[in-house]
């Protein structure tokens, strides 16, 4: 039996009954043992045509290479002008099938000999087989050995027919004055056949470079997010809009685009968010001219600036009560010129801002017309990313409704950032339901979410390091990886820092040659290609599942989740409940 390349006959691609017949015969004939048969072999460097195709290219050890043209027509004729009519419906063709396959064969032989001169002694021959008629005409234009027909195929079988053709052609070459190149009567050897196959059909293995993967992923996210810009058209008809949507729906990008458009209207803009790292991201995505016109600041820095307060107490009481009250006092002072100074308020991470009524009071005083009648745009995820408080979604909306009225809620539900496997894994663990109407990005064959289990911190640190080293060895830069933990002081990050002092850096001290780490809370609103999530000891509480939802949705390629062994049964329970 011959080795067929490709191994199966493509019925959709090939309609020729003759080719189908020969494919099956060549594959099953016992005389074709150790043969290699390439079906529908394209000859790119063809003389006289843009390209050519050989129906069957047959490599036979000890015999040579046969280029075989297949004609399955039941009626074949040629008129006195040399036009060939293949089939009853044929309108004629000036080129002989013998010439067609001969030219393709010679072009291929020239290519092979130029690539490897050691293969020059291999005989290359061509022939035509008429599988459904007994065409047996003779002509000086072809040799009898180059012609096979249906009757011969039926009586002798394809293996014997081809061997007979090889024997006659090899004998002819030997007796030719120009056949001195044919010095090896046993050519080609099995080794030569494999070398020949390597040149004819070299194995190909190409993939995008790591940097190209990162660039393509970033471009894909950008394109899909920009499709969401249509949502900003609502600004033309409403002074106040609340945009809501889960992670990955492009809320921050929309907020930045809205700010760019507002700058063109020469408005004084206050751009507020909760996360201090997000402030830098927003500034990086706005031009210098834009940032000169927009006051971009996180809520804590805003209050500190208004009160001109240098020393701070890093406690919930200070940030949620003491500092907000001092800020309100400053704004309500009769001498204050700060109230009503902004024409437009843009808020990202709205769910974290509206959780604190006093913060809303501060924004109300700063905005011209206040929250009730002023111009504002707010962007938030009230369901999954309200991780800084345990206040229910309904109460968060109520806090805003008390200060503002007559504003539409614009839902965003198309995920533009995460690949489908990331979304599915996040849905399973986060258990927040069907958050998306559409996931724009599909499968990524190279990068799937990875779950690792650890019994102690030492084992976790080893597995985290192994994952990092694999990504770095694959060629991904340090800056494409971010480590996230729910803990302010992560024991695994401390262990890794002790083992590999050169590897990690805090997120607030970025270095190109190091991998940044921070808390899940601090990275909310940001993204990176690879997210490594550590120190997960339980996945039962709603607060932890919200944290994991937030962390896993930060990735544009994939995440690595490190879970304590005690979570195995908890995850099994989640999987069972999901079915």
From TrEMBL:
Q: Where is the UvrD-like helicase C-terminal domain?
A: 517-558
Q: Does the keyword Chloroplast apply?
A: no
Gene Ontology BP annotations: recombinational repair
Swiss-Prot/TrEMBL keywords: ATP-binding, Helicase, Hydrolase, Nucleotide-binding
The residues covered by the Helicase/UvrB N-terminal domain are: 214-364
Statement: the UniProt record of this protein carries the keyword Nucleotide-binding: yes
Question: Which is an annotated GO molecular function term of this record?
Answer: ATP binding
Any Pfam family matching the protein: ResIII
Q: State the GO CC annotations.
A: cytosol
What's the superkingdom here?
A: Bacteria
According to the entry, every stretch annotated as the NERD domain falls at 16-131
* UniProt protein name: DEAD/DEAH box helicase family protein
